[in-house]
Design brief:
Strand content: 15-25%
Helix content: 40-55%
CATH topology of the largest domain: Rossmann fold
CATH class of the largest domain: Alpha Beta
Number of helices: 16
Largest sheet: 6 strands, mixed
Shape: globular
Number of strands: 16
Distance between the termini: 34 Å
């Protein structure tokens, strides 16, 4: 999205919402929810602000929320509190009579935006020339609908941070090599844990349009797209060193979107669900430094006062794009439904949806 497009979208929020008090906004949200009843379903990603999460009907990870949304057969409107690619996935999985709304169109994902279809088509052509028909593509669900569709029509599948191990094992049963989009860190960390050495992993740079690899190309097993999560890449080994020095006996728990060095030096790593479950099951009095998005860390701190929990990086801010959605934009979405003119409706092209579903279903069949 260009700067001009961002400015135009920002101006779309009617001024009346800026003139309402927080109390008025939250009370009005509750009223509209009651009025719409089962016609409305509001899923909210774990990284959303607390002011939004309190109004959500279900919380979870992106794919989980899209699946739950698809189960709400009576809901004509899905107001997805997350980011753009998540709303796309919800539109792909829900039925044709259901409309998916994104409260603020500025809520994107920098990682998903690091792989567009033009870059990916170019890379695939170059890699096919280099390696022949020996590559299968996988994409993290944190990707655009077009990238999911690309993977679907080329025999690959989507993966989540929870099932990445099993999906990589499946992919290696299909082909000799994997092209992993768009997060290099999840791909690298997962492959390494499965026994693939770092010197058998290459990186595809979509900006320079080149493969970065020092070894013999016949040894290359993983081709990692040069993309990353701007939040998780900001956790460092220096953060770990400081925690070890200043907080004796504190467990370090990180998301596998962190760099390989950080994951290797942590005590535990896993998906958002893994992190939440780990803290829920931890002994009272245990100590945890968590390397993931700050809204979730703050929520875990509030929910578990019997444990000492801090962010691995004390200067970490919430994900800027996840943080775009606030109560004002949520209310705007809900009232637009009442007015019969829903705003920010996310619609994925039918052919793109069909191909993306191929990739998603290949994963679901093995998860």
């Amino acid at each position: 999205m260009s700067l001009l497009e961002t400015i135009v979208v920002k101006q779309l929020l009617p001024e009346k919402y800026n003139n309402m008090s927080d109390e008025e906004i939250h009370e009005r949200i509750r009223q509209v929810k009651a009025q719409l009843g089962k016609e409305l379903f509001i899923p909210g990603h774990h990284y959303q602000r607390e002011e939004v999460i309190q109004h959500c009907d279900s919380t979870g990870d992106s794919l989980q929320l899209a699946q739950v949304s698809a189960q709400q057969k009576e809901a004509s409107f899905i107001v997805f509190c997350g980011v753009h690619f998540m709303a796309e996935t919800a539109d792909i999985l829900t039925q044709s009579h259901q409309k998916v709304l994104l409260p603020d169109m500025r809520a994107g994902c920098s990682m998903a935006d690091m792989a567009n279809i033009q870059q990916t088509d170019h890379a695939w052509e170059a890699l096919q020339q280099q390696f022949g028909d020996s590559i299968i593509p996988l994409t993290y669900v944190n990707s655009t609908a077009e990238i999911k569709a690309f993977v679907g029509r080329n025999g690959g599948a989507t993966v989540t941070s929870s099932n990445a191990h099993s999906m990589l094992k499946w992919a290696f049963e299909q082909k000799e090599r994997i092209l992993f989009l768009p997060d290099q860190h999840l791909g690298r960390n997962t492959a390494f844990e499965l026994g693939i050495p770092l010197d058998q992993m290459a990186v595809w740079d979509p900006i320079k349009n080149e493969l970065i690899y020092d070894g013999d190309l016949t040894d290359c097993k993983m081709i990692l797209w040069k993309g990353h999560c701007s939040v998780h890449e900001n956790f460092t080994v220096e953060n770990i060193k400081q925690v070890r020095e200043q907080h004796h006996g504190m467990n370090i728990l990180v998301h596998p979107e962190c760099t390989h060095e950080v994951v290797e030096q942590s005590d535990y790593n896993g998906s958002t669900k893994y992190i939440i479950d780990m803290i829920q099951q931890a002994e009272p009095g245990s100590k945890w430094a968590i390397g993931t998005e700050m809204n979730l860390v703050k929520r875990l701190i509030d929910q578990h006062p019997d444990k000492e929990i801090i962010s691995l990086n004390p200067y970490m801010c919430p994900c800027l794009t996840m943080n775009r959605i606030d109560a004002k934009h949520l209310l705007w979405s809900l009232e637009s439904i009442l007015e019969g003119a829903p705003v920010n409706v996310i619609t994925v092209d039918e052919e793109i949806s069909k191909q993306a579903v191929l990739a998603i279903n290949r994963m679901l069949e093995r998860s």
